[in-house]
Specification:
By secondary structure, the protein is α/β, with parallel strands linked by helices. The protein has 9 helices and 7 strands; from the N terminus they run αβαβαβαβαβαβαααβ.
Length: 260
């Protein structure tokens, strides 16, 4: 058999026997991510606030587990990580997907409480969950953390004017770099996805009106919004051994948005 015939370029994308935790898994990106990781062979712990949706999803994914969790509550994060380890033995992959957004407003008119709420969910929770999972990963010198940032962690959200969302996602990009470097020589990789506009519950209001959809088309070089399945490859790349020489990186899946 020749060397060419022996090469399997897809093998490193497999997650057989691994345990993955996905937050915000009750809808949108998180639900899709859970399905993709399961299809790649992982046992998936799905976490979110809406336990009924999680249980329905878990019933479709072999070996999966549903855990109710509000990522803005420290005790919930601790229980999520503890339950995953107790029930499935370890955590190999953590996908920090849960997110929130502030309503479009001028920064000078935004209430501090609204700003803090978004940062708690989008940034502080990612730090907390990553450190909790890392305590399991670091002694084994193995693990992959994938944070869901946004193109608005790389460029301003204007004209939408969402200071809290942009600031928190910018923080995710920077935190990803920092943790990626801190843990690099200990075998734990940390990377981020930065999606552009995809139709999910978080963006439903924008997609519900012609002006919103037209704005996305007009400002995206590829001329359309993303489709959920167009994140599959990027997620698997970062979660699996396919990206074993990648850490601290943010991968934009944005139809060319940030290349303009």
């Amino acid at each position: 058999m020749s060397e060419r015939e022996r090469i399997d370029p897809f093998a490193s994308f497999r997650l057989d026997g691994r345990v993955a935790v996905v937050t915000g898994a009750s809808s949108g990106f998180g639900e899709r991510f859970a399905r993709v990781l399961s299809a790649a062979g992982a046992k998936v712990v799905v976490a979110a606030r809406r336990i009924d949706r999680l249980e329905a999803l878990a019933s479709e994914l072999e070996g999966s587990l549903a855990v109710a969790c509000d990522v803005a509550v420290a005790a919930d994060n601790e229980r999520l990580v503890r339950t995953a380890i107790e029930r499935l033995g370890r955590i190999d992959v953590l996908v920090n997907n849960a997110g929130s957004s502030d309503a479009p407003a001028r920064a000078e008119e935004e209430a501090l409480g609204d700003f803090t709420r978004v940062v708690d969910v989008n940034l502080n929770a990612i730090f907390h969950l990553s450190t909790l999972a890392a305590r399991d990963m670091l002694p084994r010198h193995s693990g992959s953390i994938v944070n869901v940032a946004s193109i608005h962690g790389l460029v301003a959200s204007a004209p939408n004017r969402q200071a809290a969302y942009a600031a928190s996602k910018g923080g995710v990009v920077s935190l990803t770099r920092e943790l990626g470097v801190q843990w690099a020589r200990k075998g734990v990789r940390v990377n981020a996805l930065a999606p552009a506009y995809f139709e999910t519950e978080l963006t439903a209001e924008m997609f519900a009106v012609d002006s919103g959809r037209e704005w996305i088309v007009r400002n995206t070089p590829l001329g359309r919004a993303g489709r959920l399945e167009e994140l599959d490859g990027a997620l698997l790349f970062l979660a699996s051994d396919a990206s074993s020489y990648v850490t601290g990186a943010t991968l934009a899946v944005d139809g060319g948005w940030t290349a303009r």
